[in-house]
Design goal:
heterodimer, A: alpha+beta, 2 domains, 6-stranded mixed beta sheet, B: mainly alpha, 5 domains, two-stranded antiparallel ribbon, two-stranded antiparallel sheet, 28 helices, 74% helix, globular
C-alpha cells in the first residue's frame, strides 16, 4: 500500500522534474560504474611508479638514439686506427649501451676461433639462441657475445662465445658490433 | 526554483554542463599521460599493463579509469585477425582439383570460394576492359596461350574512342536531350584528347562490373527486406553501420579475403554500394500506394507477378535513384580502391598526389569528376524519364537512336582504319590517344602552384600558423583534456535529454565501444577535427543557403552547384587544397569544410523551401517584414530539416577527416591507413572503421531524436 502511494506520488510529479531526476540518476550510475571499474582496473601509486620507470627508459633511449644520429657513419673503433673513427672512452661506453645488434659478420668472425661453436652454428643452419652487448663496469670494457646450442654428434651442447667488442658499425640509424675479440 | 519552473529544459542542460565541467576540473591529467603513446600502441615494453581474454594478450598503458577507460575491447582486433586467418587457412578443408599439377589439393573452403569469386570478377573486368580497350586475356580464358600463339588474329580489338564518344552522346540525347548529349560528347573528347582514355576506360570497366552487380544484389536484398520483417531487422544495423563507416576501413579486411587488384576493388565497392541500393529499393516499394497493390491482386497477379509487374515498375523512380547512388559510390570508390591495386584514373590520381604532382592529379581528378557528373546526370535522366506505353511509333521512330549508333560505329571503324594509314609511323590517334601522349596541362598547373607559393607564401604561412597554433592546437588540447567519465556523462546525458532513456542507452553503448577500444584518444582527435569542420561548414552553409533562398534562380543555381560538387569523388577535394596549403592539417580541414558545406547548404535551401507558402502569405498579411518572417517563421519551421543537413554534414566531415589521413593527420584515419600496409591489419582496420561509424551514429541518433521531437512539437510530422 505504502509502495503504491509512493509510486503514484512519483507519477504525479511534473514531467520536467521527473526528467531532471532521471538525469541525476544516470549521472550517478555512470560515476558509480567508473568507480567500480577503477577499483578493478585502477593501479594507483604502483601505476605511477611503473610509468615513471617507463618515462626513464624512454628518455634514456631517446638520448642514445640522439647520440647515434650524431655519430659518423662507418666503422667506429676503440683503438688507434688509420681510416676509422676512434671513439673516446666516454663515447665507447655510450655506444656500447646503445648497441643491440650483433650481425652475422661479427658472429662468424668470433666463431673462427671457437671450432665447436662454429660446428653447432653450421649444423643448426646459422641459428643463434641469443645475443648480448653489455658494459662491464669492473673492466671498463664492452662485452659482446652470443649463445649457440644444438645436437652435435648425439650430444646436446650450449656454447656461449663472448669477448670484447672492439669496433662498431654506425649506420646512421643504429650501431652494430663490428668485431668481437674473443682471443 | 522560479527559473526551473519557467525554463525546465535550460535548467536541465545547465545542470548537465555543470556536472561535465565539474568532472573535467575535478579529474587531473595523470602525470604519466602522453597523447602520442596513448593507449593505441601495440609495442611491448615491460611497464605496460596486460590482460588475457579469449587467449589473446592485450597490452596497454593503464591510467586512472576516470581519466581513460582500460581497452577492454583490445582483444577484438586480434580476435578478428586470428578468426580471419583461421577461416582462410584452416577451416573446413576440401579437396580441389588442380589443373596445373593434375591432382587433388586440400584447400579451406573460404579460401576456395574467395579464389573462385576473384577469378570470376577478374574475368568480368577483363572482358569489359578488352571490349573497351582490346586484348587477349578473355580469348585465352576460353582457349589457351598455345592457341593464341597459333591464331594471333584472335584478339578483341577494342572500341575506337570515337565510337564510345558517339555512343555516350547518343545515349545522353535519348535520355535527356541535346544539352546532355553535348556534355557527353565534349567529356569523351576531352578525356581522349588529354590522353586519359586508357585509365578512364579502366575505371569505367571496373564500374561497369561493380555497379550492375551492386544493383542486382541491392535490389534482391531490398525486395527480401520488403517481404520479410526478419530480413529487414537483420539488415538494419548492418545498413546503419555501413552508411556511416568510412570506405577506407572496409578495404583492410578485403585485402585479407580477396588479395590485391581490380577484383578485390570490385568486391569491396559492391559492399559499399549495396546498402544505399537496398535502402532506396525498400523506400520505393514501401511508397507504392495500397490501391496499386490492390489493383494488382484484383487483376489476378501471383506474388512474383505482383512484385515484378506491379511493385517494381511503380517504384521505378526510387529504384533508379538507387542506381544513381550506386554509380556515385562506385566513383568515390574508384579512387579509394586504388589503395588496393585498382587500375585506372584513381590509381593515377593517387600516384600523382603521392609525387605531389598537382598538375597530373588535377587532370586525372577532372576526368573522374567529368565522368561522374555525366553518369550522374544520365542515371538521373533515366530515373525521371517517363515511358510512353501508348505511343504508336514506326520502326524508325522506335529504333532511330540504335540506327544512329550503328551508323556512327561504322564511321568510327572506318576512321580508325583510315588512321592506320594516316598515322603509319606513330600512334593511331583515331583509334586511341595513348596515355601521356595527349595534350597535357600538368606543367601549367604545376607552375601555377609554384607561383601561388612564391607569391603568397608569407600570407599562406601566416594563416597556417595562426590556424594551427591559435585555433586547432588549443581545440585539440581541450578535447584531449576531457576525462572519459565526463565525456560519457555529457553524451549520455544529452541522449537522455533529447531522446529519452532509449536514446541514452543507445549512445551510451556506442560511446562505450569507442572508450573500451584502444583508440579513445584518436577518436577524440577525429571528433575535434570533424567538429571544427562541421561548425565552419554549418555557418557557411546556413548563410549561403539562406541568402540563396531569397531568390528562386539563385536557389536553383546553388542546388545545381551542390549537385555537381556532390558527384566529385572525395579525394578530388584534396587536390586544390594541397595546391594552396601544402601538406598540413589546414589542407585537411579546408577540404573537410568545402566537402561538408554541400549538405549544409542544400538542406538549408530545401528546409526553407519546405515551409508552406500559405504561412508566408499569412505572415505578410500580419505585417511582418522579411527579416521577421525569416527568423520567426521560416527558420523555426525549417529547423528540423536543417538539422538533418547537420547530420549529413557530420557524416561528410568524418569521411573527409578519415581521407585526410593521406595528408598526415593523427586521428583514427591514420591508423586505418597504417592498417592497410599491415599484414595483420584487418582486425584493426575494421574495428577502427566501426569506431568512426559509431561516432557518426552517436550524432545521428541525437539529431534524429531531436528532429522527431521538434517535428511533433511543430505539428509537421
Amino acid at each position: 500500500m505504502l509502495k503504491e502511494n509512493y509510486f503514484s506520488k512519483l507519477k504525479e510529479l511534473p514531467e520536467s522534474l521527473k526528467q531532471l531526476g532521471g538525469l541525476v540518476l544516470i549521472t550517478i550510475i555512470i560515476i558509480l560504474s567508473f568507480a567500480i571499474l577503477n577499483d578493478i582496473f585502477g593501479e594507483g601509486d604502483e601505476l605511477v611508479k611503473k610509468m615513471k620507470l617507463e618515462e626513464e627508459r624512454i628518455a634514456k633511449e631517446k638520448k642514445l638514439s640522439e647520440l647515434i644520429s650524431k655519430l659518423p657513419s662507418g666503422i667506429l673503433v676503440t683503438f688507434d686506427g688509420t681510416d676509422n673513427h676512434r671513439l673516446t672512452d666516454e663515447l665507447y661506453e655510450q655506444v656500447c649501451n646503445a648497441t643491440k645488434l650483433i650481425p652475422q659478420r661479427a658472429i662468424m668472425g668470433a666463431n673462427f676461433l671457437n671450432y665447436r661453436a662454429h660446428e653447432i652454428y653450421t649444423i643448426n643452419g646459422n641459428k643463434i639462441d641469443e645475443t648480448f652487448v653489455k658494459w662491464d663496469k669492473e673492466k671498463n670494457k664492452c662485452l659482446a657475445g652470443f649463445t649457440v646450442s644444438g645436437n652435435n654428434v648425439g650430444v646436446d651442447e650450449t656454447i656461449t662465445v663472448s669477448g670484447e667488442a672492439l669496433s662498431f658499425l654506425s649506420t646512421g640509424i643504429d650501431t652494430r658490433v663490428y668485431f668481437i675479440k674473443n682471443f | 526554483m522560479e527559473f526551473f519552473k519557467k525554463y525546465p529544459k535550460t535548467f536541465q542542460w545547465l545542470f548537465l554542463l555543470i556536472i561535465f565541467f565539474a568532472l573535467c576540473f575535478a579529474i587531473d591529467v595523470p602525470e604519466t599521460y602522453k597523447f602520442i603513446r596513448g593507449q593505441a600502441e601495440f609495442v611491448k615494453d615491460p611497464n605496460q599493463s596486460s590482460y588475457v581474454f579469449l587467449g589473446k594478450e592485450v597490452r596497454y598503458y593503464a591510467f586512472d579509469v576516470f581519466w581513460r577507460l582500460p581497452p577492454l575491447l583490445g582483444w577484438l582486433p586480434i580476435w578478428i585477425n586470428d578468426s580471419l586467418f583461421f577461416l582462410m587457412n584452416e577451416w573446413m578443408p576440401i579437396e580441389v582439383w588442380n589443373e596445373d599439377t593434375q591432382e587433388f589439393k586440400s584447400r579451406p573452403i573460404i579460401l576456395q570460394i574467395s579464389r573462385n569469386l576473384t577469378a570470376f570478377m577478374t574475368f568480368l573486368i577483363e572482358l569489359i576492359r578488352e571490349i573497351l580497350l582490346g586484348g587477349l586475356e578473355t580469348i585465352v580464358a576460353f582457349t589457351s596461350w598455345d592457341w593464341i600463339d597459333k591464331n594471333p588474329w584472335a584478339e578483341l580489338p577494342g572500341l575506337p574512342w570515337t565510337i564510345v564518344a558517339a555512343g555516350a552522346a547518343l545515349l545522353s540525347y535519348k535520355l535527356s536531350g541535346k544539352g546532355l548529349a553535348l556534355f557527353a560528347g565534349l567529356t569523351m573528347v576531352y578525356i581522349s584528347v588529354f590522353g586519359q582514355w586508357k585509365p578512364s576506360m579502366q575505371t569505367l570497366s571496373f564500374i561497369l562490373v561493380a555497379a550492375p552487380l551492386s544493383f542486382i544484389f541491392g535490389l534482391g536484398l531490398g525486395i527480401a527486406a520488403f517481404k520479410s520483417k526478419r530480413v529487414e531487422k537483420a539488415l538494419y544495423p548492418i545498413l546503419l553501420v555501413m552508411q556511416t563507416m568510412p570506405q577506407y576501413a572496409v578495404l583492410v579486411p578485403a585485402l585479407v579475403l580477396f588479395g590485391v587488384g581490380d577484383h578485390a576493388a570490385v568486391i569491396i565497392t559492391m559492399v559499399v554500394a549495396i546498402p544505399p541500393m537496398i535502402l532506396l529499393t525498400l523506400l520505393g516499394l514501401r511508397a507504392v500506394p495500397p490501391e496499386v497493390i490492390e489493383a494488382g491482386r484484383m487483376s489476378g497477379c501471383n506474388n512474383f507477378q505482383l512484385m515484378f509487374k506491379v511493385l517494381i515498375p511503380t517504384a521505378r523512380r526510387d529504384i533508379l535513384i538507387g542506381v544513381n547512388q550506386v554509380i556515385m559510390v562506385c566513383f568515390s570508390m574508384a579512387v579509394i580502391s586504388a589503395f588496393i591495386g585498382a587500375k585506372g584514373l584513381g590509381f593515377n590520381l593517387l600516384l600523382a598526389l603521392n609525387q605531389l604532382n598537382i598538375g597530373l592529379a588535377l587532370e586525372a581528378g577532372l576526368c573522374i569528376s567529368l565522368i561522374a557528373i555525366l553518369l550522374d546526370k544520365m542515371s538521373l535522366a533515366w530515373a525521371n524519364k517517363q515511358t510512353d506505353y501508348f505511343g504508336n511509333l514506326t520502326f524508325y521512330q522506335r529504333n532511330k537512336n540504335l540506327l544512329f549508333f550503328a551508323a556512327t560505329a561504322i564511321i568510327g571503324i572506318i576512321l580508325a582504319y583510315v588512321g592506320t594509314f594516316l598515322f603509319k609511323d606513330t600512334f593511331n590517334y583515331l583509334f586511341e590517344v595513348p596515355h601521356n601522349k595527349g595534350i597535357s596541362t600538368a606543367d601549367f598547373w604545376n607552375k601555377g602552384v609554384d607561383w601561388i607559393f612564391d607569391t603568397f607564401f608569407i600570407y599562406i604561412k601566416a594563416f597556417n600558423t595562426w590556424l594551427i597554433q591559435d585555433v586547432l592546437q588549443p581545440m585539440r588540447a581541450l578535447y584531449l583534456r576531457m576525462p572519459a567519465v565526463a565525456t560519457i556523462v555529457l553524451i549520455v546525458g544529452a541522449g537522455y535529454l533529447i531522446g529519452g532513456l532509449r536514446s541514452a542507452l543507445v549512445v551510451c553503448a556506442l560511446t562505450l565501444f569507442i572508450a573500451f577500444s584502444p583508440w579513445w584518444d584518436r577518436a577524440l582527435v577525429t571528433a575535434y577535427m570533424a567538429t571544427f569542420g562541421v561548425v565552419v561548414s554549418c555557418i557557411i552553409g546556413f548563410t549561403v543557403g539562406t541568402l540563396c533562398f531569397q531568390n528562386k534562380h539563385s536557389a536553383n543555381f546553388m542546388l545545381s552547384v551542390c549537385d555537381i560538387f556532390q558527384t566529385f569523388p572525395s579525394f578530388v577535394y584534396l587536390i586544390p587544397v594541397m595546391m594552396l596549403f601544402g601538406i598540413t592539417d589546414t589542407s585537411v580541414l579546408i577540404a573537410v569544410i568545402v566537402y561538408a558545406t554541400i549538405p549544409a547548404t542544400r538542406y538549408t535551401i530545401e528546409g526553407l523551401r519546405s515551409v508552406p507558402t500559405g504561412l508566408h502569405d499569412a505572415a505578410t498579411m500580419s505585417g511582418v517584414n522579411k527579416f521577421q518572417r525569416l527568423t520567426k517563421i521560416e527558420f523555426p519551421l525549417a529547423f528540423p530539416h536543417m538539422m538533418l543537413g547537420i547530420n549529413q554534414t557530420i557524416v561528410f566531415a568524418l569521411f573527409m577527416v578519415i581521407i585526410g589521413a593521406f595528408i598526415g593527420t593523427e586521428d583514427l584515419g591514420q591508423y586505418i591507413l597504417k592498417a592497410l600496409s599491415d599484414k595483420k591489419g584487418a582486425g584493426i582496420g575494421l574495428t577502427l572503421g566501426i569506431c568512426v561509424a559509431f561516432i557518426a551514429l552517436i550524432f545521428d541518433n541525437l539529431i534524429r531524436a531531436y528532429v522527431q521531437k521538434r517535428k511533433k512539437h511543430l505539428g509537421i510530422d
